[in-house]
Design a protein that fits this description.
Elements (H helix, E strand, L loop, with lengths): L1 H19 L81 E5 L3 E5 L6 H22 L7 E6 L11 E4 L4 E5 L6 H21 L1 H5 L3 H12 L1 H4 L7 H10 L14 H19 L1 H9 L11 H5 L3 H13 L2
C-alpha cells in the first residue's frame, strides 16, 4: 500500500514538471531582456582631513661643554743620573818573579806561566783573566788588597813536592804553582790557584814571620775561607756551616785535631768552617790577633785562651753546636 501511494505521488510530480516547461524559440528570435543594473556602489569624493600643526619638538637635556681651567703643568726633562764612578781594576806595573815555563799572560797583578805536559798555553791564557777575578773576590772577603805582583804557574804533577800536592805558595818569593794533568778539570785547578793566591794575601797582611809560624788550622782554614764560593760550589754548599754538615753526614767526626787523616781537602774544609764560626761569633779583628799569635805549624799552637778567654777544646765545642743551628 505504501509503495502504491509513493508511485502515484511520483507520477503527479513528474506531470507537473513537464507542464512547466514551454517550448523555447530558436536562437535567432531570442533577445536578452534589457535590464539596467542598479547602482550598488557609489564613490563619493572624500575631503582629506585638515592638516594639523606639527607636534611640539621634545628636547631632552644633553651634555654641554664647559671650559674648565686646567693648571698649567711644566714637564721638565730629567737629567740622567751621572754614571757612578767606576774603580779601575787594580794594576801593579812591572813583572812578577820569573818561573820555569812560558809566560802566557799578565793580568793586573799576576804573571801566568805554563810548563810542559799540563794544560795547553792556549787554555791557560784563556783563563788568566779569571785568575784576576778570583783574586779580587778573595780581597773583598778578606778586606785586604795584594800589594805586589806575583807569578803563578801550571805544571804537571810530577813536579810537585809530593804526590798529593795540588798547589803550593812560596809567599816570600812571590810565586805559586798548581799541578794538574792535561785531561784534568781546569775549573778545579782555578780553585786551587785561588787558594794559593789567598796565602799571598795572608803573608802580606800578617807579614812573613807570622806566616811562617801560623797555626795550620788558621793557615789553611783561613785561606780556604778566603777562597769562599768557588770552593763551596764544588759541593753545592751555600756556606761553610752547610759544608761541615755534609762532612758530618759522611760519617767524619767534626774534630779539629787529627782530621787530616781524612785527606787535606776535608781538613781544610773543617778548619774553614771553624774559622767561619770564629769570625761570626767573635769578629774579624780577634781572628787577626789569633793568627798572629801562632807559635808554629802544629794544630792548636795559636793562643786561643789568650785571645778568646777559653781553650781550643771549648771553642771547638761551641763550633760544633753552631754547626747544628740554622
Amino acid at each position: 500500500m505504501v509503495r502504491l501511494t509513493t508511485g502515484i505521488v511520483t507520477l503527479v510530480l513528474l506531470a507537473a514538471s513537464i507542464a512547466g516547461f514551454a517550448v523555447q524559440p530558436p536562437d535567432a528570435h531570442f533577445s536578452e531582456p534589457q535590464v539596467r543594473p542598479s547602482q550598488v556602489f557609489r564613490i563619493e569624493p572624500v575631503a582629506p582631513p585638515p592638516i594639523r600643526s606639527a607636534p611640539p619638538l621634545i628636547r631632552f637635556p644633553v651634555a654641554t661643554v664647559r671650559a674648565i681651567p686646567v693648571p698649567e703643568v711644566t714637564i721638565v726633562a730629567e737629567t740622567p743620573p751621572a754614571p757612578e764612578a767606576t774603580v779601575p781594576p787594580p794594576f801593579i806595573a812591572g813583572d812578577g818573579p820569573w818561573m820555569r815555563g812560558t809566560r802566557v799572560a799578565q793580568t793586573g797583578r799576576v804573571d801566568v806561566y805554563v810548563g810542559l805536559r799540563t794544560f795547553t798555553p792556549e787554555q791557560v791564557a784563556a783563563i788568566a783573566p779569571r785568575l784576576e777575578e778570583l783574586l779580587r773576590g778573595n780581597e773583598e772577603r778578606f778586606g785586604f788588597q795584594l800589594n805586589r805582583r806575583v807569578s803563578l804557574a801550571f805544571y804537571r804533577p810530577a813536579l810537585a813536592p809530593s804526590k798529593d800536592t795540588r798547589g803550593i805558595a812560596y809567599t816570600e818569593e812571590g810565586r805559586a804553582a798548581v799541578f794538574y794533568r792535561p785531561h784534568e778539570d781546569i775549573e778545579r785547578a782555578l780553585v786551587v790557584a785561588s787558594h794559593e793566591l789567598a796565602h799571598h794575601l795572608q803573608a802580606q797582611r800578617y807579614g812573613n814571620d807570622a806566616q811562617k809560624r801560623a797555626d795550620i788550622i788558621l793557615l789553611e782554614g783561613l785561606a780556604t775561607w778566603i777562597t769562599g764560593p768557588p770552593w763551596l760550589t764544588r759541593y753545592d754548599a751555600g756556606s761553610w756551616k752547610e759544608r761541615a754538615r755534609q762532612i758530618r753526614d759522611m760519617g767524619i767526626p767534626l774534630r779539629l785535631l787529627g782530621v787530616q787523616r781524612y785527606g787535606d781537602n776535608i781538613a781544610y774544609e773543617v778548619w774553614a768552617s771553624f774559622v767561619d764560626f770564629l769570625i761570626e761569633r767573635y769578629g774579624m779583628e780577634k781572628l787577626h790577633t789569633l793568627y798572629e799569635s801562632g807559635r808554629g805549624r802544629e794544630a792548636g799552637s795559636a793562643d786561643y785562651r789568650g785571645v778568646y778567654g777559653i781553650s781550643l777544646n771549648e771553642l771547638a765545642a761551641e763550633w760544633r753546636a753552631w754547626v747544628e743551628t740554622d
